[in-house]
Amino acid sequence: MSKKNQTLGEFIIENQADFAYSSGELSRLINSIRLAAKVVNHEVNKAGLVDIIGAYGETNIQGEDQQKMDVYANETFIKTLTNREIVCGIASEENDDFITIEGHKKDHKNKYVVLMDPLDGSSNIDVNVSVGTIFSIYRRVTPVGTPVTKEDFLQAGNKQVAAGYIIYGTSTMLVYTTGNGVNGFTLNPALGSWYLSHPQMQFPETGTIYSINEGNYIHFPQGVKDYIKYCQQEKPEGPYTSRYIGSMVSDIHRNMIKGGIFIYPKCSQNSSGKLRLLYECNPMAFITEQANGKASDGFERILDIKPTELHQRVPFFCGSTKMVEKAEEFMTAKDR
Ligand code: P6P
Questions:
Q1: Residue 121 C-alpha to ligand 1 middle, in angstroms?
Q2: How high is the ipTM of this complex?
Q3: Does the Cβ of 121 fall within 6 Å of ligand 1?
Q4: Which end of the chain is more exposed for a tag (fewer CB within 10 A), N or C?
Q5: 3-state DSSP call for residue 262?
Q6: pLDDT in tens, 168-184
Q7: Tell me, what's a Pfam family for it (predicted)?
Q8: Is there a domain that residue 30 lies in?
Q9: Where are the beta strands (DSSP E) in the chain?
């Protein structure tokens, strides 16, 4: 039984048995992520002080300006994961293709692949708004010891063995699941240790917060427009509150604690929505379901979608179960 204020290290050892089929490698993998997160946190927290802010002058595959912190975070996580000889492949929002990690030992047995958005919401860095790292972990499907293939990355979200996020906010938290609930750890930067501050996190079954960029309203499907009108109507539980940070990790983290729904639907500019299935929606959906919430594309369960492309996008409805179900009702009525 997890105890509040337990350190992350103690928690991993105590729950080692939860890492099914793991001979300690998954624990070591989580440990390497927590190390990289501390390094990135240090830089994010001083971003305003050194000349690390501002566009890096290049663009990533998404056609977005790469902030220097994006590049720094990406390199930090890749280096840390590579050095630990646990991972055989990495896919990142910042890299056009996946990266093959050949173990230093010729006959390496590394069996995990990691997919990540190293710094989601990075455009918020310049204005001191919280940002996050999102990661998703799978067991490879091709034979151990052979080079990874795209097949190892294009797995449905229901095959994830672990997923989590780091939120670099008013405090820095690591929130993750290995399929036995969701636990949140807060970093004590003075000691460099993570403490179990939010054991067994759960979405309230319903809530009164809706998170969506209403600036795109005229481009939304009719079902989303109808749902937004529903949110604004008088209801027994009162009209809902609109809260949108523009950093998905922060919006979903708040909604998991307070109750709420986050929606990034398709719209005329983004016919499949903006968010990426593999390293944004799948990990956040795994965490959401493990916290008794719900995550869909407005119709189907996110975790059942069979990916076809590394950077494919999907519409994303995520949060308190009853709120997502109500939004899906409006979508089914008008946009099925
Ligand atoms: P918009 C950040 O760039 C991000 O990927 C998510 O973190 C966030 O929820 C979304 O995009 C914000 O997009 O179009 O509302 O600015």
A1: 6
A2: 0.98
A3: yes
A4: N
A5: strand
A6: 998 999 999 999 999 99
A7: FBPase
A8: yes
A9: 55-59, 65-67, 87-92, 99-100, 112-120, 131-139, 162-168, 172-177, 182-188, 193-198, 209-211, 241-242, 261-264, 294-296, 316-319
